[in-house]
Amino acid sequence: MPQKTTVGNEDGKRRGGPTRRAPKSAGAPDYDAILDKLRQIDASFVTATENRFATDIARGAAATDHLISALRSSDTAERADAAEALGVVRDTRALAPLRGLLSDPAPEVRGNAAIALVKVGDEALFPEIVKGLRDENPKVVIGAAVALGRIADRRVVPNLVEAFKTDDTEVGSAVAWALGQCGDPAALPWLITAVEQGFAAPNACEALGRIGDPKAAPALIKALAAPSDDTRAYSARALGMLRHAGSSGAVGARMGQLAANQVVPALKRTLKDRSKKVRLCASIALYELGEKVGGRQLVEELTG
Question: 247, 226, 224: which is closest to 237 by C-alpha?
Fold first, then answer.
């Protein structure tokens, strides 16, 4: 199941060298200890390590030459990061060097290069990746779904929805994740049905949260009572994300009323869940919805 995890290099260590603990002032929370506890509960709560070329990405096309030179590095992780960064920068000067990486011995480098090429504007690879969704090998379908999720082009939503018509939970989880990355409300009926039927429900819940449409709230509220800890946790997390569906106008007003009448009471009941992970997600969601009780519970969960 695709989840946000800490990015590491080939020996499994975090990139960027050893982490230094910042000095704390008297009475200040020990944020490093809190992060350690978050990792123990669920690694997906901790933000992934940044691409090592984050500064170059911020510079945009001015950094293209530097990033292209990094594609020739002997370090696999560095080549992969450089390819990913070029996909964000989207400078067409990178097309030829990126095509050269399609034969790289490292699969993560080849994958990042293919995704970057599509983002930069090489449409030739796009149909090939989409074609992978129809492959008989589930691993190929999963790989294609994850790649398309990273590209996040809404044109593929119909193809992803078709691939979602499967009994394979791993495939369904990957496709649900990709649909969430695309953020297209057209996928709502399929994701809501998946949550209601308990199919790939954790990723389907998160996808509904990313899409942010209040129409998903009833299904997510019901999922707070699901047997699976992960489903309850991610439905709580998603309910906190729905506030982004619209900050003004009719949709924003609808979400405000829905939150007050249904979402907040349901999340408050979930604060007594038997799972610490679920309680943590509910606390975060309530805090994001402006409920102080969420902040208090969050501190208790992490420091208690």
Answer: 224
Residues 30 and 37 sit within 8 Å (Cβ to Cβ): no
Residue 104 lies in a domain: yes
280 neighbors 298 (Cβ within 8 angstroms): yes
Q: Give the residue carrying structure tokens 């790649």.
A: 147
- Which DSSP symbol is given to 261? I
198: left (phi over 0), alpha (psi -120 to 50) or beta: left
Q: How far is CA 195 from each of CA 110, 210, 223, 240, rounded to the nearest angstrom?
A: 34, 14, 7, 17
pTM of model > 0.85: no
Under-70 pLDDT residues of the chain: 1-49, 243-256, 259, 304
- Single out the residue in 76, 92, 120 at which a domain terminates: 120
Residues found in the chain: 304
Domains of the chain: total: 2
Domain span at 75:
51-120
Residues 246/247/253/257 CA torsion (nearest 10 deg): 90
Dihedral angle sign, alpha carbons of residues 298, 180, 184, 190: negative
Q: So what's the pLDDT on residue 34? A: 58
In the chain, the amino acid numbered 205 is: C
Q: Is residue 39 part of a domain?
A: no
CATH number of the domain residue 106 falls in:
1.25.10.10
Which among 259, 256, 263 is positioned nearest to 235, based on CA atoms?
A: 263
Can you give the C-alpha Rg of the chain in angstroms? 21
